[in-house]
Structure formats: C-alpha cells, structure tokens
Design a protein that fits this description.
Blueprint (H helix, E strand, L loop, with lengths): L2 H15 L8 H7 L2 E3 L17 H7 L7 E3 L5 E3 L2 E6 L5 E6 L13 H11 L11 H6 L6 H6 L8 E5 L2 E5 L7 H4 L31 E7 L3 E6 L12 E5 L4 H9 L5 E3 L2 H8 L8 E14 L10 H9 L3 H8 L5 E2 L22 H10 L11 E6 L3 H18 L3 E6 L1 H9 L5 E7 L9 H5 L13 H12 L3 H18 L2 E13 L3 E2 L3 E2 L2 E2 L6 E2 L5
Parallel strand pairs: 1-10, 14-15
Antiparallel strand pairs: 2-3, 4-5, 5-7, 6-7, 8-9, 9-10, 11-17, 12-16, 12-17, 13-17, 18-21, 19-20
C-alpha cells in the first residue's frame, strides 16, 4: 500500500474542503441541485452491455440500457420492454409481446427485429481485441443456436424468431426454471442496430444507444461518466436531470467528498463504519443492505500443480479462521459464509458445512500430501482487485494465516480490475480472492455456474463427475423441493472439494444524502434511477 500517496490526497482534500460543507460557494451548490453524484471506484471496464461482467460497471450501464425483463423492488422478474410473455407447456418456448411506441435514444421505435439483431451481435465471433462474446457465451447459451453463433459456425441464432414487429419468440434447449431471471442480465439489453457497431466494442457515448431512462453524454476515461435524462423515456422522464459518476479509487477520498457535500451516495469500507456511526453529522445517513453475494478464496489446480491434490486444498481451507476475519477484523459487518449459496437465494442453507477452521488437521493433510511444514511448496500468490481496502484486508489476513498455520510462503498482489477479469476469464489465476454476486436468485447461478465442468464461470477448472451429475439434474428439474435437495448434495461435494473456500456473505454499508429521495433498491443493489428526486437544498 502506498501510504505516502494517500497522505497527499488527504492533504489536498483538507486544503480544498477547508472547515467543511459550509465553505462551498453558492455557485457550486446550485450546480449540484439537479445532479445526482456518486462515485465509481474503478474506471468502467467497458461501455458495452454485450461485454460487461462486473457489478460496478453494470450499476452504471443499467441506467442507459434495457432488455425484455428486469428485477422489481420485490426481487421478482417484471416486464421492461416486454409488456407480457407466454411460456409453452413444455417450458422451452417463450413468446414476448413488446410494448409499442418505445423509442431508442436516437428517436427510432424499437421492434422485435432489434432484439434479434442485438442477441446475434452480442454472440458475434470476431477478434477478442475488438469485441469479446465471452459474456454472451455465459448468459445466453440456453437459447438454441447461441453456442453455434458464438463459435462462428452459424450465421444467425435459430432459437430467436421475429413473429411480427412486436412479437419475439425465444426457444431454449431444455426447460429451465431460472431462464427469465437469466434474461435480466444486461447482455440481453436491446441496441439500436442502425447505430451500434457489429464486431466492435462500444467505446464512446454516441454509440451507447438503447432505451434506458438516461443517455450517456460524456465519458472521460479514468475521470467521469455523465448521464442525462432521456426526454422520451417510455416510463416517463426521470425527475433528476443528470447523473455524474466520477472515478474515485481511494476509499478515504470518497468518504471525505461525501462529508464535504460533493457526492450524494458512497459505499463504505468496513473500517469507515465505526467512525461514521460516531459522527453526528452523517450517522443518520448510514444504510445497510443485505446482498446475495459470496466472497471466497479460489484455488486453481490447473495453474498451480500442488493444488491438484484435494488434501492440499483442504489444508489451505482449514488453515483460514473465517470467524476471526469476519467478526474480528471486519467487526461483524458481514456474516461468516458456511456455504456457497448466500442468503436471499433459493436453496440457501443455514446449516451448510464448509470445512472448519482446524490448523492441526490442516498441517496433517499438508504433510500427507508431501509438504510437511510447507517444505517444497511453491510460493502462493493471492490476486485481488485494486481500490478496495476490505478486499486487501481479507487477502492479507488469509496469506498470514496460511503462513502461520502451514508454513507456506504466501503473499498478496493487487491487479487493475479489467486486467484481473481478463486473466480470470482465461483461467490463469492460481489463487484469488473475489466474489460471486447473484445475477438471478437461483442456486444454478452459483453451483452450476461456478463449479460444474460445463459451468460458464468455472474459471478454477473444478472437475467432479458426481457434482456435475447432480447439478445437471437439478438445472432442469421443475419440482422446487427436488431441485433444492439435488443442489444441496452438490453443494456438500463442492465444499469438500475446496476449490472455492467461502469466507463471508456480503452486506453493503452506504451513506445516502438526505436530499436523495425515491431511490429504488432490491437485493441486487440500486435499480435504474427512474424515480429518484433531489431536494433543492444541497447537502
């Protein structure tokens, strides 16, 4: 950590902020009155809904792009650009009836043909340096013909048909109870085929043409993204005129800017909460949100050969004192994860049994695997994203426990966020600390996605035939109780295999200015800001 740089930032903030909020000029306050400002901790990884993978960027893009369906404040799938839909008796054909009169930011009306073009554009196989269909290959492969389109062996997606300008059918390979939830992912958001490029990633505001409540009018890399309310939004123009998302990588800087009244919402790091609770000026602004997200340690046997031995992975898992990390270092803001499926997701089990903290047994397993006291074990480097002190805190704690309890030389290494994701997609991360946040509230999105051999997010190269069998059965089982039982059996196997070691379930702590009204939220986070209002008096 570069402490000198952080101290310089603090000094600069103090010089600008003076004695606090009251020192800002009326001109600055007036400029803030109709602008909702909240920071993004990293430069957006992309401006393209067909490419995006990370939650921070999706939070930005969801105000610009929309699809057929989305999530309600009650955590259920609700209509967006589809007015309604029908599902065939066998559960494989979905017929979507589009809203009429919906306009793109360009002014043209949306038709079913735009949706078919968008799906095929996002699956288009080209040079990954120009456009990657990785995201489509993860979220759209249940649709008949998507695999072939992504592979470049088909010209179109046979499972998507335009019936008429306002009717679209999507055929999937098998009945899948979670398909509508999967279709909420932003890769399904419609794009204006007359403007958006085929085979090239969207990289500037004028190409970001969809139907969302805001249009992107400015993007300065590593600095700021500006969104302005769309006059002809089909749901009615947003009450707030503009959203600004400045890139602020340092957590302390983000908090100080909130205290100074320069931003309206900020997500806190664990170490900030105690100080916030003691500050009468902002303590009342603190809000906690439960999230369906599991933070974990990932072990990739294909990259680091010693990890191919399950005893080694189990030893590492049993050397980590999760209770000390979560309830000690992190002060109990989050909760200890004993399973892979978090609270709020169908199939979550309070009694799931991840491997326990047991240093003696861990040392025994490591010795049995041929590395007594860590002798002969290669250096173990844990990779994690930059700009999040909480992430670094856990990574440092984990490496320290591995050193102390097993004698393995372990260290941490931060990475720029997009580079981290690209290396993870390539399955080249040997040892990582990261999270999986629900895309939809179904155990398939965790167990099959992350650890099945056929799972699109199996970046850790986990292979277990019995695990695959149970997940494959559960994926297409229509009886909810039977699905739950099958996934529970698979989860037990996955926890024992210790390729993923769950650490904690996420809870977000945010400061939200009292002038912010009408913000909509659900388990996934804040929804597109269609109802958000700002009181005239700035904070």
């Amino acid at each position: 950590m570069r402490y000198t740089g952080i101290l310089l930032v603090f000094a600069a903030l103090l010089a600008v902020a003076g004695c606090g909020k009251g020192n800002f000029s009326d001109r600055v306050k007036s400029a803030q009155r109709d602008v909702f400002r909240y920071p993004i901790p990293n430069n957006p990884t992309t401006l393209d809904p067909g490419v995006v993978q990370d939650g921070d960027t999706i939070d930005l893009l969801q105000n610009v792009y929309e699809g057929l369906v989305g999530w309600s404040t009650e955590n259920t799938v609700e209509p967006r650009l589809a007015e309604s839909w029908d599902i065939s008796e066998d559960g494989t054909v979905y017929t979507f009836h589009l809203k009429k009169g919906v306009k793109f930011h360009s002014g043209r009306e949306v038709t079913a043909e735009d949706f078919k073009w968008t799906f095929e554009r996002n699956c288009y196989k080209t040079d990954p340096n120009k456009f990657s269909n990785e995201t489509a290959g993860v979220y759209l492969t249940d649709i008949v013909g998507v695999r072939e389109k992504c592979a470049g062996t088909a010209n179109d997606i046979t499972g998507i048909k335009v019936v008429d300008p306002y009717t679209l059918t999507i055929t999937i390979d098998k009945p899948r109870p979670y398909f509508l939830g999967k279709l909420t992912f932003i890769v399904s958001a419609v794009l204006d085929k007359d403007i958006v490029p085929m085979g090239q990633e969207i990289n500037k505001p004028e190409l970001m043409v969809s139907t969302g409540p805001f249009k992107c009018t400015e993007y300065v890399q590593e600095q700021v993204t500006v969104l302005e309310a769309f006059e002809d939004y089909h749901g009615g123009k947003s009450p707030v005129a503009k959203i600004e998302r400045p890139v602020i990588k340092d957590a302390a800087t983000r908090l100080n800017k909130y205290k100074a009244g320069e931003i309206d919402l900020v997500q806190l790091q664990r170490q900030d909460i105690e100080g916030v609770e003691k500050d009468p000026a902002i303590a009342g602004d603190l809000v906690l949100f439960e999230r369906p997200s599991t933070w974990y340690i990932g072990l990739n046997a294909d990259v680091l050969p010693p990890l191919r031995d399950k005893r080694v992975r189990q030893a590492i898992a049993m050397s980590i004192d999760k209770d000390q990390i979560v309830n000690g270092l992190m002060k109990g803001v989050n909760s200890v994860a004993n399973g892979l499926v978090p609270p709020g997701v169908f199939g979550h089990r309070k009694d799931a049994k991840a491997l326990p903290y047991d240093p003696d047994r861990a040392r025994q397993l490591l010795a049995e695997a041929g590395y007594p006291g860590g002798k002969g074990f290669p250096q173990l480097t844990i990779y994690y994203r930059e700009s999040y002190p909480d992430i670094q805190l856990v990574a440092v704690a984990v490496t320290g426990m591995i050193k102390e309890n097993l004698g393995i030389d372990a260290k941490g290494q931060t990475m720029e966020w997009r580079a981290f994701l690209e290396k993870n997609n390539a399955k080249k991360q040997p040892f990582v600390h990261m999270r999986w946040a629900a895309d939809y509230l179904d155990p398939e999105n965790y167990l099959s996605f992350l650890l099945a051999s056929y799972g699109p997010e199996n970046r850790l190269n986990h292979h277990n035939p019995e695990y695959d069998r149970l997940c494959a059965m559960a994926d297409t089982e229509l009886n909810p109780e039977k699905r739950k039982q099958l996934y529970a059996q698979a989860e037990d196997i996955g926890l024992d295999d210790a390729v993923i070691v769950p650490i904690y379930y996420q809870r977000d702590a945010e400061l939200i200015s009292p002038r912010v009204k009408g913000i909509r939220s659900n388990l996934f986070g804040h929804l597109a800001h269609t109802t958000l209002k700002l009181e005239n008096a700035p904070k």
